[in-house]
């Protein structure tokens, strides 16, 4: 072998020796080795946002990485969830799925929805279920839901209600109720629960339907008057407020939920690690206390169980859309 050939062989061996440890390190990097992103498809300060920030704080500690919360509001949550569906399936982009994004939006938007809630996501875990409350501004002269129905029937279309957006769970649920009760209300959609709540409290709209956690403080302070809950039972926080089933509308069903999803194709091992971290986070006393104070009930489960809940939500709200003649047109 010539001297030149020996040099070339030596350099090749050195390059291989140097590259091999780096390649092995990259190939076997533990997940997660960088910050994660959690997309909330609604504006800040709603109950979904509250749960997301608790998950980010406590699950981030379990994972040893920062989880950055990003609010991407619009189209009843579908805009943010579309971004989750299109993200790289590596576990670093997650989304807060809700009964809106994975239930009512499917019914409202139909073929125009740019993601499939069943096929385009890898469920990680459900987090919590919450009652939904229909509340009115105290200036409206109704103390009960029956009195409000009477007012609305006397003057069809006079009273308005705010929702987090067209096709959102709030919009769908109230349109379902108006169809069942025979009243007409004016729907005012907002880009998220926070702005909708601000105008309901301020009196720019007459009422609002929202998850109880984000409405409860306003109700307790007298800035809103709760009339009825969407839940399977009365809330200890509002023991005098009936549920829809008690006033003759069992078809309204129960409250909503929110949980964590990843893009479809995310490796099962990554989903499993995320699931374990979220469940550990949900066992922390401060996490439990804050969610309890917000009126939420924790429902951690397996990815398969969460998948089944998503499929049930889609089927339910497709049926609701037919009754309420709901469309996001």
Automatic annotation (TrEMBL):
Classification via CDD domains: PBP2_BugE_Glu
SUPFAM superfamilies according to UniProt: Periplasmic binding protein-like II
Signal peptide extent: 1-29
Alphabetical UniProt keywords: Signal
InterPro entries in the record: BUG, Bug_dom1
Coiled coil regions, renumbered to chain: none
UniProt record similarity statement: Belongs to the UPF0065 (bug) family.
Protein name: Tripartite tricarboxylate transporter substrate binding protein BugE
Native source organism of the sequence: Achromobacter mucicolens
């Amino acid at each position: 072998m010539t001297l030149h050939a020996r040099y070339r062989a030596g350099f090749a061996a050195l390059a291989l020796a140097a590259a091999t440890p780096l390649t092995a390190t990259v190939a076997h990097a533990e997940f997660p080795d960088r910050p994660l992103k959690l997309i909330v498809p609604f504006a800040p300060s709603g109950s979904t946002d509250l749960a997301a920030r608790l998950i980010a704080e406590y699950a981030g500690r379990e994972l040893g990485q920062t989880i950055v919360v990003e609010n991407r509001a619009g189209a009843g949550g579908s805009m943010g969830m579309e971004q989750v569906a299109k993200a790289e399936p590596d576990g670093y982009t997650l989304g807060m799925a809700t009964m809106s994004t994975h239930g009512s939006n499917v019914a409202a938007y139909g073929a125009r929805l740019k993601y499939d809630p069943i096929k385009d996501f890898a469920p990680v875990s459900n987090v919590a279920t919450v009652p939904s409350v229909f509340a009115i501004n105290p200036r409206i002269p109704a103390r009960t839901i029956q009195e409000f129905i009477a007012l609305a029937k006397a003057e069809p279309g006079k009273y308005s209600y705010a929702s987090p957006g067209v096709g959102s769970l709030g919009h769908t649920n109230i349109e379902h109720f108006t169809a069942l009760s025979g009243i007409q209300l004016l729907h005012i959609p907002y880009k998220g629960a926070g702005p909708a709540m601000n105008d309901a409290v301020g009196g720019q709209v007459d009422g609002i339907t929202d998850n109880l956690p984000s409405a409860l403080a306003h109700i307790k302070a007298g800035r809103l008057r709760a009339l009825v809950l969407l839940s399977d039972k009365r809330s200890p926080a509002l023991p005098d407020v009936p549920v829809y089933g008690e006033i003759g509308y069992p078809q309204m069903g129960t409250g909503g939920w929110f949980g964590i999803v990843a893009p479809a194709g995310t490796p099962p091992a990554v989903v499993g690690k995320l699931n374990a971290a979220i469940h550990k986070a949900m066992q922390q006393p401060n996490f439990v206390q804050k969610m309890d104070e917000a009126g939420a009930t924790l429902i951690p489960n397996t990815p398969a169980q969460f998948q089944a809940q998503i499929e049930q939500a889609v089927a339910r709200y497709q049926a609701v859309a037919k009754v309420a003649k709901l469309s996001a047109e």
